[in-house]
Amino acid sequence: MCGIVGYVGPRQATSILVDGLRRMEYRGYDSAGIAVINGTGVKIRKAAGKLSALVDKLKTETPDGTIGVGHTRWATHGAPTTPNAHPHLDQTGRIAVIHNGIIENAGTIRKALQMRGHNFKSETDTEVLAHLIGEYDTDNLEEAVASALWDVEGAYGIAVICSEEPGTVVAARNGSPLLIGVGDGEYFVASDASAILEHTRSVVYLDDGEMAVLKRDGYRVRNLTETHVEKPVNQIEWDLATIERGGYDHFMLKEIFEQPESLHNTLRGHLLEDEGTARLRGLNLSDDELKRFDRIIITACGTSWHAALIGEYMIEEMARVPVEVEYASEFRYRNPVLDDRCLVIAISQSGETADTLAAVREAKRRGARAVGLVNVVGSTIAREVDGGLYLRAGAEIGVASTKAFNSQVGALAMVSLRLARLKNLSVLQGRDFIRALNRLPDQIKQILDRAPEIERLATKYHKAGNCLYLGRGVNFPVALEGALKLKEISYIHAEGYPAAEMKHGPIALIDENMPVVFIAPKDAVYSKIVSNVEEVKARKGRVIALVTEGDVEIAKLAEDTFTLPQTHDLLTPILASVPLQLFSYYVAVLRGCNVDQPRNLAKSVTVE
Ligand code: G6P
């Protein structure tokens, strides 16, 4: 989703801003722009479409200046055109604003400003904010921004510069992530650490309601009432290599291949084999507290929601605690029944998804304990929950989530194990589960070594117009995730269904052109899924089956099979999801799709 980068220091700003925007391309956007100040006012360059369109414009007219702001926009208010691209200027053309989020009362403010003679050049809420700041500006940008923000409702991360204060960037955050990069005699603002990582690893995360004032000789954090707020400087641990492709054609492929290591990192240090349990200190919950919960709600969006569904099967099966899985966007506006015996688990790769964050806040407001399974260290959800686990999967850049998904499932497996051992799981069963978990990284590696088999399947099926994914039990969510991966990046219409539910509708779609992917490991519901495969075969559907090594029954029925190593029934989703990720990747490549930045999608959805 939208990206913000700003710079003040001794160096030329344009190339720093463009490089920063390039690093944030993965978030998804549809136009880009920069504003730079030099002795002759604010210079704005912007272009609809990919960053390369802006870079082309800059080749002929690069603005000079050592202070500036840059933005990639993901359209919300107004089409993705050049006039709607950020930065936006105020009425006088002195103040430039870039903005992530949505100003909800922009319509009302726009009307009031129009009555006072303001003319707008775009359809955006951001231009309204720029004009409002301009109205307040007498001779102090910082105060003008603070005054304007009192009038504004909604979510924002903003960065503002003014030609009359050519040494100051003012930034503010409310509901949309923003951080300050502290360099040596230079300062940055960014919505995503990857934008500034090549310049500094020291960052200050802004919280909602906070502003920052960056000058060449230092920075200060404040809020709307106090002019100074003390904030810690954090060190980012990951380095540039983790956000570069490292020889792979796409980030998605790199991240799929990183899974042996990323899953190992998720599990590392948590599993106590002797005791047959998991140590999860980050949850900040004692054994007594964990035992007291009589209900668990897991809330998330997108791929993380699919991981949550797998968690539901795991926790109910192992720990016998009732679990509900809620789309965060629904949870936040329902009237959920919550009390202090209910544990809410929020799952988010980015830790910034607006709906998931709002669900966490709602859960806490209603007195529930909220914990997070989050990948991005220092993200807003990670900072607001009562406790949680970091996934430690490393930076995930590809918009289609892969390694984070399996780390989420791994983390949920550990939560299930901990809860189960406090209830009725024996130490021996706990040890078996741990051994199975520990084998997974090697087993994923074995699957990845056979990627060419999946590539051949992709070559065979990549022209399909539709695709059905079917699974049962804990592998039903894997079917949902397999279908989501395919539609996200190859734009093939795909549906995931519980295999037996197929006969209540989707069976009508099956003919000799329909590939049907079965997730059919040798588990407790194996014989049931064999019958479902027969039903599809009887209608001439083209069955592709993921089966356990040694399977002969389904292999006889299916047109194509891919074998999975043997594991604990509840852990099959981690292995089964890997060939499905590879399948959608190769299909998308064969169809010429932009794998890492699929159309209309954003990596981190920071608006509702
Ligand atoms: C976006 C991404 C998905 C992701 C979802 C939730 O839609 O494109 O890949 O699953 O957001 O993101 P989160 O960061 O909260 O896991």
State the main characteristics:
Glutamine Phosphoribosylpyrophosphate, subunit 1, domain 1; binds 6-O-phosphono-alpha-D-glucopyranose; 26 strands; 36% helix; Rossmann fold; 24% strand; globular; alpha/beta; eight-stranded antiparallel sheet
Give an account of the 3D structure.
By secondary structure, this protein is α/β, with parallel strands linked by helices. The chain folds into three domains: 3-236, Aminohydrolase, N-terminal nucleophile (Ntn) domain (Glutamine Phosphoribosylpyrophosphate, subunit 1, domain 1, 4-Layer Sandwich), CATH 3.60.20.10; 243-448, Glucose-6-phosphate isomerase like protein, domain 1 (Rossmann fold); 450-598, Glucose-6-phosphate isomerase like protein, domain 1 (Rossmann fold, 3-Layer(aba) Sandwich). The strands form five sheets. The chain has an eight-stranded antiparallel beta sheet with strand order 3-2-4-1-10-9-11-14, with helices on one face. α9 links the parallel β17 and β18 (323-327). α7 (259-267) packs antiparallel against α14 (427-449), α9 (302-319) runs antiparallel to α16 (476-490) and α14 (427-449) packs parallel to α19 (572-590). The model has no long low-confidence stretch (mean pLDDT 94). Bound molecules: 6-O-phosphono-alpha-D-glucopyranose (G6P).
Q: Which residues form runs of ≥5 with pLDDT under 50?
A: none
Please give the share of residues in helix: 25-40%
Find the CATH topology of the largest domain.
Glutamine Phosphoribosylpyrophosphate, subunit 1, domain 1
Alpha-carbon Rg, integer? 25 Å
Largest sheet strand order: 3-2-4-1-10-9-11-14
